[in-house]
Every structure is written in C-alpha cells, then in structure tokens.
Design a protein that fits this description.
Shape: globular
Radius of gyration: 26 Å
Number of strands: 2
Strand content: under 5%
Number of helices: 31
Structural class: mainly alpha
Oligomer: single chain
Distance between the termini: 75 Å
C-alpha cells in the first residue's frame, strides 16, 4: 500500500452469492426476517432472474403469496425457463383460490422439465387438485348464471330470475350459485329471500365457511347479535383458504367482532407467524380498538417482510405523530395522504429519468407499483399516462412486460399495456397472462389497411375465450392469417359489437380444420349464444376468404 493511501477507508460490499449463503445460515438459525432482508439486498444488487427468484421462493415458504407473485412475474418476464418458477407461481395461485390459473402453471412446469424434482412436485400437486370443474359440467351453465346475475343487477328481474333458475336446474354443484343468489337478494334488501337461499346452501354443506359467514352477517343485520356471533365463531373454525379467510376478516371488521377476530388470528399466526395478511389484519384490529403502539409494531414487522407495501410504509412513517388522522373506518390510507403520495411520484417523474424512476427497490418504483395495481381509476390513469409518455424507453418496456405477467393486475391496465407493447415492441415474443392462463404472444405491427388496432383488441378477447385449449396460440395464429382477408367492417364487428360470436367462430373453424370434431361439437354445445349466430359468422368468413383468394390476396 502506498504511503498516501494508508488510513483510507474503502467500502466493502458482499457479493450476491455470499449474501444468499448467509441467508441460508440465518434461516437455519430461525432468523427468518433477517434472511429475507439479506435476500432482498442480494436481489436489488444483482438484479438477475435467479436473484429475484430466490427472494420470491423465500416469500412463498413464509406463505406471503401476495408479495411473492409480483416477483415471480418479474422472473417470468425475463426468463420463463428458470427452474421451479412455474411451480411456485402455481402454489401462489392455488393458495389465492385461482385454481384454473394454477393448473395452467402446473402444466407449464411439466412441459418445462417433467423429470426433475419440480416435475415430481407438480405431478403430486396435480393429483391433489380436487377443486377443478367436472368435464361434463357445461361451461354454458356458468355463463347463463352470470348473464342472469347481470340482468338482475341492471333491474330486469324477470329475465334474471328465469336465467338463474334455469342455470341452477342444470348445475351439478348448486351451492356457489345459492350463495351468489343470496348475496343478490341482500343487495335488493330482501332479507327473507336471502335467508331462504343461504339456508338451502347450508343444507348442502354445513361446514362451508363462506355460507356460515353470510348467515352470520344476515343475523347481525337483523339485530340477532347472539346468533351472529355463534355462526361467526363456526365460520372462523372452518375458514382455511385465503378467500374464506378474507371473507371472514371482512365480516369481523364490519360487525366489530374483535373477540372472534383475536381468537382466529392467534390460531392462524401459530401456523404462519410471518404471514403478511394476518399481521395486517391484527394491526387493523388493534388500531381500530385504539391500541396504536401495538399496531405500529405490527406495521413495522410487515414492512420488514415486504418493503414494497406502500400502504404500510405510510402508516409506519406517520405512526409517531398523526396516525389517527390517517386511519379511516377500515384502517386504510385516507384520500389526502394518497394525494400526497401521488404528488411525490409526479415530482420524481419530472426530475429524473424513467430508468431511475423504475429501478427495482427504489421508493418511486414502489409508488408506481402501488398506483398501477390499486383500486382507483384516477391513479391508474395517472400511472398509465406517465408510462405512455416514455413507452419507447427500454426501462418502461421491461416494466410493462412485468405487468402483463401479473395475474392480479386490473384488466383495464392489462389491456392498455398490451396495446402499448404492440405499438413499441419489435416482434419479440412475450409472456402474457390473459383469461386465467399464460400465453406466448408476438406483438408485431399490423398494416393499417388490415385493421391493426381492431386486431389487437380482438386478440386479447380471443386469448380469453380459448384459454381452455392447450393450443390457444395456434388458434391465435390461425385467426391472424384469416384476419388479413377480412374487410374493415368485419374487423370492427369482431373487435367490438360481435366479439364473442367471432371468437367462437374462429375457434370452431380451427378445430374443424384440424379434425378435432368432438371438441368442435362441444364448442357449439357450450356456447352462450345460439349456434345459428356462430354459423352466420362462419359463412361471412367463408365469403371473405373466397373473395380474397379470387383476387389473389392470400
């Protein structure tokens, strides 16, 4: 060492691999939060798919499925061949109640590497999935019930009741429909009708947590608090899955059943001590009861598990001076504080470039994730406008690719992101989550005379309607070849007014061309519209293709 360098301090930074090794040692010592923090530092430093997957796998092992899914989507958007990532995504989706999407991920894992330990785990997971719909149950039943519920909501009660009764007659599993009809009756303030349907559902399954919670809510609204508390206790004893848990916790907050909530959360936290959702519910309970010190401690623990949770970060930052002003009836962030966070993001966007703004782990990146995946339309519009102004930049394209891989992203945002990528991408294949499954799509530019924008709108609808096929990509390519022969009027009909009929016609035509007549017959049987409307579209396609062939266009 030179004489003028003696006494100088040099920063020492561990490599990502050494940090991951240290996280393994911390996990063995029982220090799960320290291991999680070290893995997050390694992921932010390396910024590779393997590093982010190590962090996501640790979150999955701690049952924090909501926090793990965006990280898994980040890995899939960069490298969908990472070993084990499809299996962990399937675990997250199954835990959150998205069984069809979880099945798609299990099949992806089996296609990726069927003879690895992950493939063996995928086969075992597939054998345990008993919640899938029966193949003999027509999909038309669900569509018929949904159309009946929509008719009731818009005020057409005779039509809605007729469709719902018909769907319940032909359905094999009537209990979910009975619960939904009871909820519709409650929305119309018909407590007698709601009680009748929920009691019928209770006879089908006396231990269903959703039915017990709905029955407890009815008794609370009728002023029969003792019965309500009794059924709420029974619901807590049977609420095991994440949807049942969310339904139960929403009921106890609504009716201030703090004793039942405390018993339930204490029992659940014994099995999952680092589950972020349970800790947040416990913090809400203490905050609404006035115990702000315990609530602030729990919020800090949540932030140690998931620093990307901006709602909890705001509550922690304000817990020292004005926590009561930030809490509403459900212990959520008030509109004034949300406006303040929005102003911070707008100021950061005006003073820095998008690569710095969207850097993983930064404060501005967490704000962007919070706004674009939230529940407020104005915040979605603000975030989309900010991304749309710089959509050609590399950092923005990479961020939008992550967004379309996230299963819990709002559909409006997902469609907007897909259109933006179609305008800016250079034809490379991207992974897209649409209609309950992942699909590889190529966002290539389409010539204006062939209706480029209607095609991109129709493509999203086609992927949604053909999600039950393992060859949905081939169906989309087949439809793209036919699209070139269609006039603009037909393209606009397919993308807007008659999209369902055109999707079914493309699907039926592909199955007929490939010789799968049994699947083609089921498409006609399960369609939510009469077969004559689909055949009418088929005749239109035949005329357009024949005319294009005669003119030498195809």
């Amino acid at each position: 060492m030179k004489q003028n360098e003696q006494g100088a301090l040099y920063p020492f930074c561990l490599s990502g691999s050494r940090m991951r090794q240290g996280a393994v040692m911390l996990r063995r010592q029982g220090r799960a939060l320290d291991a999680l923090s070290l893995l997050r530092r390694a992921a932010e430093q390396d910024d590779t798919p393997a590093a982010w997957y190590a962090l996501a796998a640790e979150l999955v092992s701690l049952s924090n499925w909501e926090a793990a899914m965006p990280l898994l989507a980040r890995v899939l958007s960069r490298d969908d061949h990472q070993p084990g990532v499809w299996l962990d995504m399937a675990r997250c989706l199954q835990a959150l109640g998205e069984v069809d999407s979880a099945l798609d991920c299990v099949y992806r894992q089996l296609q990726e590497d069927p003879w690895s330990p992950e493939g063996d785990a995928a086969r075992a997971m597939l054998a345990d999935m008993h919640l899938t719909a029966d193949d003999k149950e027509p999909r038309r039943t669900q569509l018929l019930f949904r159309r009946g519920a929509e008719a009731v909501q818009r005020g057409d009660y005779p039509l809605g009741e007729r469709r719902i009764r018909r769907a319940m007659r032909i359905a094999k599993n009537k209990m979910p429909m009975l619960v939904s009809v009871s909820a519709l009756r409650r929305m119309d303030q018909d407590d007698v009708g709601a009680m009748k349907y929920i009691c019928r559902a209770l006879r089908h399954d006396p231990e269903d947590a959703r039915v017990l919670t709905a029955l407890a809510s009815l008794f609370y609204e009728q002023g029969r608090e003792r019965l309500g508390r009794a059924f709420l206790q029974r619901a807590g004893a049977h609420a095991v899955s994440v949807p049942e848990e969310a339904n139960f916790l929403s009921a106890v907050r609504t009716y201030h059943a703090w004793q039942e909530a405390g018993v339930y959360l204490e029992e659940r936290l014994k099995r999952q001590p680092y589950r972020k959702t349970l800790l947040y519910a416990q913090a809400q309970m203490h905050a609404l009861q006035g115990d702000m010190a315990t609530a602030a401690h729990l919020w800090r623990e949540i932030l140690a598990i998931d620093p990307d949770d901006r709602c909890t970060a705001t509550l922690v930052g304000a817990s020292k001076y004005a926590i009561r002003q930030l809490l509403g009836i459900s212990a959520r962030i008030t509109p004034s504080e949300r406006r303040h966070q929005r102003q911070l993001l707008e100021e950061a966007a005006a003073t820095s470039d998008m690569a710095t703004l969207l850097k993983p782990g930064s404060h501005t990146r967490r704000l962007m994730d919070w706004f674009i995946a939230g529940a407020y339309e104005d915040e979605h519009s603000m975030a989309m406008a900010m991304l749309g102004a710089h959509r050609a930049e590399t950092a923005v394209i990479a961020y939008m690719k992550e967004l379309i891989c996230q299963p819990l992203l709002p559909m409006k945002v997902r469609q907007w992101v897909l259109l933006q990528l179609a305008e800016t991408a250079e034809g490379e294949e991207m992974l897209l989550f649409s209609g309950g499954r992942f699909s590889q799509v190529s966002c290539q530019r389409t010539e204006k005379q062939h209706g480029g924008r209607p095609w991109r709108m129709f493509l999203s609808l086609l992927l949604t309607e053909t999600r039950q096929h393992r060859k949905s990509r081939e169906i989309a390519e087949f439809a793209a070849a036919i699209w070139q022969a269609l006039p603009l009027e037909c393209c606009l009909q397919a993308a807007s007014t008659r999209s369902y009929a055109w999707c079914k016609a493309m699907e039926l035509l592909f199955l007929s061309k490939t010789g799968d007549m049994e699947s083609a017959r089921r498409v006609l049987l399960d369609a939510a519209i009469p077969a004559r409307k689909i055949k009418r579209v088929l005749r239109t396609i035949s005329r357009c293709v024949t005319a294009a062939t005669d003119n030498g266009c195809t």
